[in-house]
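Archive transcription. Copying these from loose printouts into the bound notebook so they stop getting lost. Printout 1 of 2:
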Amino acid sequence: MAQIAALIDVLKQALKSHRLTYAEVARKLDMSEANVKRMFASKRFTLERLEEVCKLMRMELSDLFQLYEESRQRITQLSLEQEEELVRDTKLLLVAVSVRNRLGFDDIIAHYQITKSECIRALAKLDRLKIIDLLPDNRIKLRIDEGFRWLPNGPIERFFEKQIQSQFLKSGFNAELERRLFLFGLLGDASVQLVIDKMQALAKEFTELHRRDARLPLDKRHNIGFMLALRPWELEVFRPLRRKGRE
């Protein structure tokens, strides 16, 4: 009932944004205004009636459900304590990363050495942390925002930084699906900002591709590490050769 009530609240907001009053809804649906008010107050709609109201706004039912999904509380970051809890438990962190990558329950237990009971316990913890909603039959609904980020220099970022330094960068980057590009030059402030803007745009595109490819079967997807980095930097070997006053 809570979900239905929230859905009707979203419908009311949609009507308001389209500047449709209960009186206008009643007239277009050939109902009395009192009945329309009663219907919204009781939050009792048939699917057919719900669809009729949506059509008044030139919306499909799927559009209403999308608005409802967007209206739900979404988290953009975890607390320090929550991240520390994930880092302490390798299997919990594995399940957290897996669900963020939109793997389902069956995918996780088929792909990793984790039992069903261990996976369920991990999912229950993630539900408590409000990262997911754990639904019947172990279905998973993500609650994190599209712009979700780990805490800057927090436990998760530090954990992955160690993995990047010890594993990710130790590669020739010449195998299939591997590429490495390193550029070095002198740029002005405006050019640096332009590169940063392009990096942010590319990061958004990567996120969108990640979301879109969630529809593919797991065996058609790859664990991909993608790193973009930019900072003032000079080869260490050149520094002793700098003239004094040019630090």
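Printout 2 of 2:
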Amino acid sequence: MGVTERPTFSSEASRQIYEYVERHGTVKRHRLLDLLSLPAEEFQSHLESLKADGYLEEDGGTLQIALEFGAITEYETDGLEFIIRPGRQADFDGLIDTIRDVTAEETYVVAETIAEELLYEDTVSRHNTVKSRMFFVATVDGDVVGWTHLDLPQVDQLQGTAQQTVGVREEYRGHGIGSKLLDRGIEWAEANGFRKVYNSVPITNDRALEFLTEHGWDTEAIRRNHYEIDGDCVDEVMMAREL
């Protein structure tokens, strides 16, 4: 199943199984069986069908949604080795810490909001008929040091656009990690039929605006006094890139 496809189910039981896993990020098989009022053989049949259709995957008895995000890519620049790969539930704590590290240094309201959503929902991936999101992460020695996030609307009229965020811990900047993350998200969006990505940044975040401009993004609109930051009203710059 691709992340842009809305999930459809052959039975109510299959829908319940998928939605429980989707809502909780990861679930132990035996725990899910205990929670659902289904005979073991029927549960197994629905679960195997969901796995065969590419909706769920299982690792050592732990279930999670299966989304085809792409391959793992290794890079080395200036003696630093890093990996960019799809985000997964095991990255949850590192992802939150990285987003908070970036937003503590410079105001990035959308990224702060995403961190709060992750904490509230307690899951990295989200894919249902209402909303979907995905992450690619950059890791060094297994630790998350950067991310790019795509918010993927499920409303028909908005399905051609995606909101993207990107950030890298300060101590790992200057190695091209942010550029690789940004490009990875854009490549995925283009390959999956999106026509535009956009990013909303406070006008006071000069570094982010310069970074996006250097990578071919254009200012699409300015919303005056959209944010209130440290007691001051601050404009929001809406940057976009056509694919």
